[in-house]
Predict the structure.
Amino acid sequence: MSEELKFHFVVDGDDFTSAGKASVQVKKNLRQLGLSPETIRRVSIAMYEGEINMVIHAGGGVADVTVTEEYIEILLSDKGPGIKDIEQAMQEGFSTASDNIRSLGFGAGMGLPNMKRYTDYMDIKSTVGVGTDITMRVNI
Amino acid sequence: MKISTIKELLGAKVICCADELDKHVYSACGSDMMSDVLAYVKDQAVLLTGLVNSQVIRTAEMMDMNCIVFVRSKMPTAEMIELAEECGIVILATDKRMYEACGLLYSNGLHGNRVKNV
Ligand SMILES: Nc1ncnc2c1ncn2[C@@H]1O[C@H](COP(=O)(O)OP(=O)(O)OP(=O)(O)O)[C@@H](O)[C@H]1O
Ligand SMILES: [Mg+2]
């Protein structure tokens, strides 16, 4: 693996049922590259949480995954409402999810903390009314 | 514990992947909130839930889980069964409620595991 590998996904914001498909695909791709199950699991959980967030909070977005020799990078970008207070959003249990979203199994306020926990690097850039960009990296 | 033992203890129906019933599993968790499930990764092999949608299957797949138990007589959709079959996840369905189902498995030796593994 001397070259960088890149995968690009469009995450549909109107289809809750298919949310997570990009993460499933990334998991398959990483398996084919022969990475360790632990690394694959960390990447796919972090990406899955981010993908679900884009669907339930931001009306969808795009995901770009880059695999280098040293790390796997996940870039999630949406044009949703943005996050007003990132520090607050990062706290376990904080959620603005509606009852409807809770009835779908999300809204525990654990997604962002999980993303932080499973990655070696995470950066959130968000502007209210403009959108959110999240960069995560898992070292190989 | 073998997945077939879980089936017997819970009087559960096997919905798919019956050929995987001999697999051994060592810990389980019960929740209707998927991010709670995703917070505790360490060898979590069985998910008990009352939530029925495709994200349950995807969550289990992300976690490399082997078995999903739907409690309170909940039944998965055809689409969910297809997803589970693709990744070899056994689906069981029981009429027991969450509390009782978890209690039965726990008291018979299948413990939870709240180790946060990074
Ligand atoms: N892409 C996003 N766009 C806008 N707001 C977001 C986005 N991602 C997260 N948030 C905000 O941050 C809060 C916390 O997110 P987090 O993923 O931790 O919890 P949750 O999605 O509400 O619940 P869970 O992830 O446990 O199902 C959300 O409730 C939402 O207000
Ligand atoms: Mg979330």
